[in-house]
Amino acid sequence: MVATKNDILKVIEDVKLLSPSAVELLAVASRANHDLKDIVRVIKYDAALTAKTLKLVNSVAFSPQSKISDLERAISYAGENVLVSLVMSETAEMISHCDLAGYDGHKGGLWDHNLLTALASKRVAELSKEPLNSNIAFTCGLLHDIGKAIVSDFLKGSLATILDSLDKGEVDDYASAEEKLLGIDHTQAGYALAIHWNLPEPLPSVIRYHHEPARAAEEHRSLVYAVHLGDIVAMMTGRDTGADAMRYLLDSRYRDFIDITDDDLAQIILETDSGFMKLKESMNE
After folding, report:
1. Taking each helix axis from N to C terminus, what angle separates 174-182 and 159-167, rounded to the nearest 10 degrees?
2. Which of 109, 183, 165 is nearest to 174 (CA)?
3. Could you tell me the end-to-end alpha-carbon distance of the chain, in angstroms, rounded to an integer?
4. 128 φ/ψ angles, rounded to the nearest 5 degrees
5. CA-based nearest residue to 22, from 101, 95, 98, 89
């Protein structure tokens, strides 16, 4: 029997909540006017997170000239984006360990795609016509596809049906095919999960509208377009989530929000793929 929207929402209600430190860090990282001291203030009260931060910064991947034992220096050295990535990989195992079987993907593929999308979204945000905090774009990119961790299991055995709907033009994109089959797509499931986790705006809005940026509230639209493009960049590098790769529509209105050329795009693809490998290496130490 095919699952219903209510079945999926019930599963979301039972998902383990994020740790208080993770929620607070994401809240801080989502504020446009936050600074390093705000990040330090969150991490220093979490002994486990402090230890992991110091271990990461002193790893071979970062290769500091001398051992770093001061938390503020460690956070400054590693950077906010690395810290947010570390926290999410540790506290949301459903993202990092999802097998993506329903998308014909592979274990770890969702985390890799989100991480590369985060890096690409940060670079795209730097080209926004409206000033954007690129670190917020990174955090949004890191979480944009969390709904796939929920929806994947419910899509098992349905790949042929979805691809047939797409090939016949019965649906516009993969998300529409998900909604036709289940009554909910991964963006809607991700939005419900973001609310369940008490994540602050703009995170829920970016998760919900990253495939439909024109539908986002005006105050978040430029940011959503940045992640919309970042997602496409990640798929172009081959860091995708399986059968849905490149089966989403590119909203050409991004040109109204992002001042990006073909040369910029090519450079971003190169930079983000390189940055992805370094970040993965540091987190796997």
Report:
1. 120
2. 165
3. 43
4. -65, 140
5. 89
Q: Which two tokens stand for residue 90?
A: 């540790």
Q: What is the pLDDT of residues 223-269, one digit of tens each?
A: 999 999 999 999 999 999 999 999 999 999 999 999 999 999 999 99
Q: What is the pLDDT of residues 100-136, one digit of tens each?
A: 999 999 999 999 999 999 999 999 999 999 999 999 9
Domains of the chain in sequence order: 5-17+98-283 (1.10.3210.10), 19-91 (no CATH)
| Concatenated DSSP letters of the chain | ----HHHHHHHHHTSPPPPHHHHHHHHHHTSTT--HHHHHHHHTT-HHHHHHHHHHHTSTTT--SS----HHHHHHHH-HHHHHHHHHHHH-HHHHS---GGGT--TTHHHHHHHHHHHHHHHHHTTBSS---HHHHHHHHHHTTTHHHHHHHHHTT-HHHHHHHHHTTSSSSHHHHHHHHHSS-HHHHHHHHHHHTTPPTTHHHHHHHTT-GGGS-HHHHHHHHHHHHHHHHHHHTT---STTTT-S---GGGGGTB---HHHHHHHHHHHHHHHHHHHHHHT-
